Predict the 3D structure of the following.
Amino acid sequence: MHGWETRMRLKHYLDQGVSKAELSRRFGVSERTIYYWIAKGQLDRDLVAGGTRYASRPRANHKLDPYKAIINTRLEEFPRLSALRLFDEVREAGYTGAYGRVRDYVHEVRPRDPVEPAVRFETPPGRQGQVDFGTFTLPWGRQHALLVVLGHSRLLWLRFYRRQTMAVLIDGLERAFTRFGGVPQELLFDQMRSVVLSDDRIGGGELVLNGEFLRFAAHWGFMPRSCRPYRAQTKGKVERPIRYLRESFFYGRTFASDADLNEQATRWLEGTANVRRHGTTGERPVDRFERAERDALGPLAGRPYRRLGATQAAAPAPRPRPAVEVQQRALADYAEAVR
């Protein structure tokens, strides 16, 4: 419904000579409606009357009204009772209406837990890195960008892969550590399947990490951590770079191959992402890294991690040759045999 103010502005612009088609586009009012208001004199009456007054509609009674107190009392004591459970209870008390009415009322009055504010925290140099995958679609298929960002300096490393596997994660992290020249004390992941086997911390259970990845972490000297389910805001330092990667690097570019994609990504890291002035820290990530974080990282491992069962297969042993016995006979014996 279009209010009195809209009609008065239409009246003003019509008097100024603005076309009805233009006013229809500008105010979202069909031309037929404008012609109708003009023909009925509605715009002139509104101008004289100073606006249309509408009486409030009387509230309709519903079958649920006598039973709302039951719902309110039950929700005050047990806030997580389902709408279906409450529907059964008020139906036993005599309610004859539909379930939808109960469901809508429960949604309206159910006590809600206060939203826990997300607290921004700054990690000390060398303390934490955050890791995540972002998926991108190219003409030849999907590519998964593995991003690693250092929490203090915001220095970013990334590489595109065709899959999200344990081997890819290990390869990417070892490349990132080499680029950083060291290893942070801990790495934070967001329920990544290569890292987290199960997480029942919300229900009072335990976090179970992949044993292979724990061995990899021990080899490189960092502690793996995982965000609690539905608390991904604790990993915002890497969530925002994924969006930044999409907008600043990926959008509007063309790539010829996997190799070209990674070559352009490396140039973007060195020429844009790590040398821009960061909006939160006010410094360029590369400057903040060199000044405060490089020397705070832990040492690199002496060699790449070798996965269990990934040792090089030994060359097959040569098959033994059967011994051949050669009999020596006099020439006279052979002459006798051919007669």
Remarks:
- The CA atoms of residues 154 and 285 lie 5 Å apart.
- The chain has 13 helices and seven strands.
- The radius of gyration is 37 Å.
- Residues 258-273 form the longest helix (16 residues).
